[in-house]
Amino acid sequence: MEIALKIAGGQFNPIELNFIRFLIGGLALLPFTILYLKKNNVKISKSGWGRIALTGFVIVVVSMTLYQISIGMAKASVIAIMLSANPIFGLIIGFVFLKEKLSRTNVLALVLTLVGLLIIINPFHLSGAMGIMLGLLSSIIFGVYGVMSRVYGGKIGLNGLSMTCLAFLFGSGELGILMAISHIPAVASAIPSNFSQFSNIPYFQGISLQTLPLILYISVLVTGVAFGLYFLSMEKVGILQASLIFLVKPALAPVLSLLILGEAMTANTIFGIVVILLGSLVTLMGEKIAYRVMAIFRRNNPEAHQEVDELEIVKDKIENSELAKRRKATEEAVRDTLEAKKERQELPSED
User: Fold this and answer.
1) Could you tell me if residue 160 is left (phi over 0), alpha (psi between -120 and 50 degrees) or otherwise beta?
2) Dihedral over alpha carbons 163, 164, 165, 168 (to 10 degrees)
3) How far, in Å, CA of 179 to CA of 198, rounded?
4) CA 188-190-196 angle, 5° bins
5) What are the b/e assignments for 297-332, b being 16+ CB within 10 Å?
6) Alpha-carbon Rg for the chain in angstroms
7) Residue 84 · residue 201 · CB < 8 Å
8) CB-based contacts of 89: which residues, under 8 Å, 6+ apart?
9) How far lies 65's CA from each of 13, 115, 178, 195, 216, in Å?
């Protein structure tokens, strides 16, 4: 994605490209969203529309605008790695604001990811520092968007794909309004020359038969289809398995950037990628590995875990007794219903 955006960034205004990308991407997901709303009879209230509009503003106007600008100021491979760290920032945001539990493995993954980012940024020898900082800020805000989408989508009654579609459309509409404001003479003249990309922002300038395939690839495939498949896979196999996508990105983006854009891979970039991959692996597999180690240790030291095993046995007994109580209560409710119907002569006999 970053490579295609880097190529297109030389032919389009970055804000314009962001607007086109999410407008077409949202329209590509719209038929599936309409089908979902009709099938599940979802009615969105005024407060629900407000939440969708706010989510769209965060992802399109803020996060992805910063992201698009950062790609033009730094290496595409480095910015791709920055964005791939957004699940870790999502963990922090969920812990601080939603009081979600943060396990030891998540803390370890967080530390590894931050160390990897510092290695790649290399603060002692910064190159493209502003672009890197904007990319990092974009990744953090993307983590905020992920939490907002999950929480607001659940309150409204939307699945991930529908929430993404509507957020894209609202966000592109909000960005379009800001683009229109940039055409006001007083506003355009007040913008410094160093930030000329924010003045008189075009809407569809530069689209031609030569650039149309690239625009459609970025908008439909990279934005619409990619986001849609990501959320569909999340619903099918779960969040952790779907997040494996972010494991591939840090390793693949620098290689493709080297082959397509000729961006050199430095030693600290390679080392930082390895550290971030380890952090992602800990996030996805840490709990499973920990349980396997505990199981092996328990087999080798049964006496050391006798109390834990006894607690597990007690827990199983309690759960089974609760299940038996619920089953008995259900049987009694059914029996009472049948007796009531027989008294009303709705059933000829108990059989």
Assistant:
1) alpha
2) 120
3) 8
4) 55
5) eeeeeeeebeeeeeeeeeeeeeeeeeeeeeeeeeee
6) 26
7) no
8) 139, 140, 142, 143, 144
9) 11, 26, 12, 14, 19
Please write down the HEC assignment for all residues of the chain. Answer: CHHHHHHHHCCCCHHHHHHHHHHHHHHHHHHHHHHHHHHCCCCCCHHHHHHHHHHHHHHHHHHHHHHHHHHHHCCHHHHHHHHHCHHHHHHHHHHHHCCCCCCHHHHHHHHHHHHHHHHHHCHHHCCCHHHHHHHHHHHHHHHHHHHHHHHHHHHHCCCHHHHHHHHHHHHHHHHHHHHHHCCCHHHHHHCCHHHHHHCCCCCCCCCCCCCHHHHHHHHHHHHHHHHHHHHHHHHHHCHHHHCCHHHHHHHHHHHHHHHHHCCCCCHHHHHHHHHHHHHHHHHHHHHHHHHHHHHHHHHHCCHHHHHHHHHHHHHHHHHHHHHHHHHHHHHHHHHHHHHHHHHCCCCCCCC
Nearest to 276 by CA among 253, 298, 293: 253
What is the pTM assigned to this prediction? Answer: 0.69
| Burial profile 145-159: b = 16 or more Cβ within 10 angstroms, e = fewer | bbbbbeebbeebbbb
- Return per-residue pLDDT of the chain as tens, 351 residues: 555 555 555 678 888 888 998 999 999 999 999 999 999 999 999 999 999 999 999 999 999 888 888 877 777 667 777 776 666 676 677 677 666 676 777 677 777 777 877 777 666 665 667 777 888 888 888 878 877 887 888 889 998 889 999 999 999 999 999 999 999 999 888 888 777 778 889 988 878 888 888 888 888 887 887 777 776 666 665 555 555 555 556 656 666 666 666 666 677 777 877 887 777 677 666 656 655 655 665 566 655 445 445 545 555 555 556 556 666 667 676 677 766 666 665 545 554
Burial class (CB in 10 A: 0-12, 13-18, 19+), 344: exposed
Amino acid letter, residue 332: E
- Measured CA to CA, the distance from residue 333 to residue 329 in angstroms comes to 6
Give the number of C-alpha atoms closer than 13 A to the C-alpha of residue 216, restricted to the C-beta side: 6
